[in-house]
Amino acid sequence: MAGPPPKPWPTGEAIQLEPLVRRVLAPNPSPYTYTGTQSYIVGIGDGCAVIDPGPDEEDHLLALDAAIGEEHVCAIMCTHTHRDHSPAAKSLAQRTGAPIVGCAPLVLDDSGPRADASFDRTYEPDRVMEDGEAMTGPGWTLRAIATPGHVSNHLCFALDETGAVFTGDHVMGWSTSVVVPPDGDMADYMTSLEKLYGREEDRIYYPAHGEAIEKPRQLVRGMIGHRRQRENQILRHLSEAPHEAADFVPKMYKGLDERLHGAARMSVTAHLIDLERRGLVTRAGDEWRAN
After folding, report:
1. What 8-state DSSP symbol labels residue 283?
2. Is 235 in the same domain as 207?
3. What is the mean pLDDT of the chain?
4. Is the pTM of this model over 0.85?
């Protein structure tokens, strides 16, 4: 996990990344969002789409207004419904009249401890895109790639014309994704990584956090290997003694910012649940043991 680059960051500026793609950084940096959420504008001239409009903050909405200018907004597209990605969709739709399309709304079981504190429950899409479905505009086609794992409703969007993929939080340019049960699922996450790795046509990834990824398949291969390494670490520690999920964090995430220890514990828990389903570990209360 890399630290953020030195300031100043280009917050609020429209950065042209390639002829069809502009990026606008939201003013919401944090240990979980790096320098902030990156909204993308696809298309230029006759009509555009806005991907991951970000937090519902007036400064960011004004920056998006300035970047869009007089262009017609054909669609507001969300990769998933974490609160740093989708809340501005409603305000931007009111400003532009554009439909909200993309991921499904995420409704979690309300029994037991709340697990949806980070979710945008105001998200109401006009159209939910299924795997392989396309949204089109003047000179561009954005195709949905279902990539559950980080959360169950996560989509990436492939720009057919250029080989670019907007990867949301599934693949980021600064860190691996956090997988938080019960909605986050490590087996699904790994399957989604394998799915992206199999897409040889993809040229570049534009993540919601961090820099563009110019060797996407190489990075994804490394991410798969990293997760397998974490899995092996867990099994090795359990072969020595039973552990609770929190016990793994200081052993496996040395030097990690303490503010991220909770996220690391959740990802370890997601690994443990996956290993349990595969019959490799067993739990009794909060304690986990190797089989």
Report:
1. E
2. no
3. 94
4. yes
